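Quick log. Single chain, no ligands specified.
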Amino acid sequence: MAFITLGSALVVAISQNLVRSIFMFFVTLFGLAGLYVLALADFVAVTQIVIYVGGILVLILFAFMLSGKEALATAEQQTNRFISLNNLPAFLLAALFLVVMLNVVFKADLNNLQWVKAAIETKNVVPVDGTGINSIGVNLMTRYLLPFEAISVLLMIALVGAAHLSRKEAIKT
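-> predicted structure:
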């Protein structure tokens, strides 16, 4: 499942064909949902499918369909080298984001947070047959915090990408 997800995400990033990238993004999002199922995060997996596959991907498809032929033709004619001086700010921002993420992951002491201790003491976990909103909230902020935050970052990136695709003047530059 991880190989399918990473492979399709790599095709999305490298492909110069916008239609192929959109459909491989579809595979990437479903693969990510499959990884959540394998990690026993069923609620996050269903949220991934309903919100991101059902909502964000449809938004990106509409942005693609609403963009004019001339804008798509000029976007395809531009040479898109992966490493160039124009991509330097994006690489610097990505490196900064990676440093911040690694700093948070390695320096986080989740066992000493007060609300995590309270959740552990009360044994407030979602049982297999339980449907409590409180239990889902506690689990989202303890056990499934990293997938929850990863999905929120993915949502932000998808919205920025959809907004960029829907602007005609952004493609012409």
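The mean pLDDT is 76.
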